[in-house]
Write a structure and sequence with these properties.
The structure is a single chain. The protein is about 60% helix and about 15% strand. It has a three-stranded antiparallel beta sheet with strand order 1-3-2. The protein starts with a helix and ends with a helix. It is built from four helices and three strands. By secondary structure, the protein is an alpha+beta fold.
Length: about 70
């Protein structure tokens, strides 16, 4: 029983593109554009395209580096 409670409390590791966009604070269209440009990476699971949490973090770090470079 404790294992089930721990599993439900864990954060998901893979996100639908729409959910990843929300986590990044961008819209769905912007997320798809960033994927097309190779800036936000994804993985395929069967026919689905998902964004691992690690790639979301990498994308945010990329945005931060770009912001620092402009200033």
């Amino acid at each position: 029983m404790a294992m089930i409670a721990a599993a439900t409390a864990m954060q998901p590791r893979l996100y639908k593109i729409e959910d990843a966009a929300k986590l990044c604070g961008v819209g769905r269209s912007m997320a798809y554009e960033e994927i097309r440009l190779g800036r936000l990476r994804t993985v395929r699971v069967g026919r689905r395209r998902l964004v691992p949490l690690k790639y979301i973090d990498e994308y945010v770090e990329l945005l931060m580096r770009e912001s620092e470079a402009v200033c």
